[in-house]
Amino acid sequence: MSPMAIVRYINVSLEKGKVKIPVDRALFVSNHGIEGDAHAGPGARQVSVLSLESIHGMEARFGSALGGGRFGENLVIKGLDPTHVTPGTRLTIDERVVLEVVEIGKECHEGCEIRRVTGDCIMPREGLFCRVITGGEVHTGASVGWEPAPAPC
Hints:
Blueprint: E1 5-12, E2 21-23, E3 25-29, E4 33-34, E5 47-51, H1 52-62, E6 75-78, E7 90-93, E8 97-104, H2 113-118, H3 123-126, E9 128-134, E10 136-139, E11 143-147
Parallel strand pairs: 5-6
Antiparallel strand pairs: 1-2, 1-6, 1-11, 3-4, 3-10, 5-9, 7-8, 7-11, 8-9
């Protein structure tokens, strides 16, 4: 298991395509996503994750605070280097909730607010998309560990 990182923000929205709103805690449901989030449901991309450091890098390039949820991400994790994550990596939150990375990056949706405002978006390069393996409640400040994907045989 890796060194620990920390959940800095949890964000949800009731409608797809809207900026997500920060909450202090949320229920992660196995094979579904975050209860009450518009992107929850069956399928592989149930929870989206960005590192706080990636957001800070974007803020430095843009010259202004962008804040959590503006990229449409569900979780912002401080201390998680997305360049060391591959599909199959498992993130364990507070030693209970387990997310498996299934995809890295995605195309921005039509009318992406961040791309419109700044001319760029980190989600296509650094967004981690996960499915919930083991559910449970997650709160801001929770510890996050990760295990690399198993090596192919």
